Amino acid sequence: MSRRLIIRPEAETDIVEAAIWYEGRERGLGLEVTSEIHAAMARASQNPLAYLLLRERPHVRRILVHRFPYRMFYIVRADAIIVFAVLHAAQHERHWKRLHS
Fold first, then answer.
1. Could you tell me the CATH number of the domain that includes residue 60?
2. CA distance 25 to 18
3. Rounded distance, CA 83 to CA 58, Å?
4. Which residue, of 38, 42, 61, 92, is most buried by count of CB atoms within 10 Å of its CB?
5. Is the whole-model pTM more than 0.90?
6. What tens digit of pLDDT does each residue of 59-71 get?
7. Number of C-alpha atoms within 13 angstroms, CB side, residue 38?
8. pLDDT tens string 77-88
């Protein structure tokens, strides 16, 4: 069964903020970080249970973004994968818990 991918507005905001920050450092880098985040989403969609389990209920997992210090947090449901946060590694993991309490 394939699951649909849902990206919460908070995660979209995280992605846009990362892209803006990197683009301000070097032209084209914003697109690269966005591309790597979307690649992490694709990996999570292909094998959602393969990544670090952080919480059983709801079923929260974390995947690392390649090349950039970001972590993507998502919930696995029978019919969907819900991405609810994309955080820089410098942000403490408790931040995602506040987002999804």
1. 3.30.2310.20
2. 11
3. 13
4. 61
5. no
6. 899 999 999 999 9
7. 8
8. 999 999 999 999
CB atoms within 10 A of CB 74: 28
CA distance 44 to 38: 10
Closest to 5 in 3D by CA, of 55, 79, 70: 79
Strand partners, 4: 80
Task: Please check whether residue 62 is in contact with residue 49, taking contact to mean a CB–CB distance below 8 angstroms.
Answer: no
- In sequence order, which residues have a C-beta less than 8 Å from that of residue 40 and are 6 or more positions away? 63, 64, 65, 66, 70, 72
38 is written with which tokens?
Answer: 């979307």
Q: How far is CA 59 from CA 10, 20, 81, in A?
A: 18, 30, 10
Range of the domain at 48: 4-99
What amino acid occupies position 4?
A: R
Total domains in the chain come to 1
Label residue 53 exposed, middle or buried (CB < 10 Å: 0-12, 13-18, 19+). exposed
